[in-house]
Amino acid sequence: MRLSTLILPVRRWSEGGREVWQRAEELGFHAAYTYDHLSWRSFRDTTWFGAVPTLTAAATATSRLRLGTLVTSPNFRHPVTLAKELLTLDDISGGRMTLGIGAGSPGFDATALGQELWSPRERAARFGEFVPLLDKLLTQDVVTYEGEYYSAHEVRNIPGCVQRPRLPFAVAATGPRGLKLAAQYGQAWVTTGDPKVSNGGGTSADSLAAVRGQTERLGKACADIGRDPGELRKIMLSGFTPDRPLDSFDAFVDFAGAHAELGIDELVIHWPVADSVFEADVAVFERIATEGLAQLGD
């Protein structure tokens, strides 16, 4: 199992922003991700910076740490412009970029450009067109495409990604259409658990059962196209289940061990943010970063 972190883009670069990404590398995290939103939940009326410029800066401030989004969505992104930004990020980082991508949700981003809120059906349909087009744009020098939602006309993406055939996709999905996309195009799959469990007052055991069901459905989606599900890394973004793995070192070890048994091979924990839902003891967090996974073998 690998351990990664999620750094919210809430710090000015000159006031601790750079140091957080550098500290993530020093602590030995496999990767550091950030959210790709225009604004997000309780942080809407506070400091919030853009994902792509933040990751570009992080790429120049680090040398080994993998970088990525968890997750980018079609809510305010177009495959053509996104592909160019990703290609550039992959180059600047020396091939350390991972794209976490999902269908998006009906939050603030969903109507920020003035569009009507998409129905769940349209959201899934757009995602089903977005991912394959993005794959083409990042693997072919010239792309022309006409779809129901997205188009590309003689788009050039030369010289392509440093990582070949392109940077990896980590596809966030729980429904059948999304899991099919993960099986077809993903190098990894991402889950946050089942919102119905957390929002409905479910227990940690309920959450584990839900994640187990998700991994089983992912396995079926892979089997349907003849792909070995073991080829996909399975990423758990924590913080959205009934568990509180950052409350103590032992709580994390229990959480990590239970999810390792389900086949999760990368855990992502939020970097502490004071006075927020992600507040945590920094000393405990850093101990988890440096010693947490080693306990799983004991």
Written description of the protein model:
The protein is globular. It has helices at residues 17-26, 51-61, 79-92, 120-139, 176-185, 195-199, 204-224, 249-260, 282-291; strands spanning 2-6, 31-34, 66-72, 97-101, 142-146, 151-156, 169-172, 188-191, 233-237, 266-270. Helix 3 (79-92) links the parallel strand 3 and strand 4 (97-101). The strands form two sheets. Strands 1-2-3-4-7-8-9-10 form an eight-stranded parallel barrel, surrounded by five helices. A two-stranded antiparallel sheet has the order 5-6. It is built from nine helices and ten strands.
Features:
eight-stranded parallel barrel; 298 residues
> Unreliable segments (pLDDT under 50, ≥5 consecutive)?
none
Strand content: 15-25%
Provide a count of the helices: 9
* N-to-C order of helices and strands: EHEHEHEHEEEHEHHEHEH
> Describe the biggest sheet?
8 strands, parallel, barrel
Give, in spatial order, the strands making up the sheet with the most strands: 1-2-3-4-7-8-9-10
Strand count:
10
First-to-last CA distance = 14 Å
Shape: globular
Average pLDDT level: 97
What class, by secondary structure content? alpha/beta
- Binned, the helix content reads 25-40%
Computed over alpha carbons, the radius of gyration is 19 Å
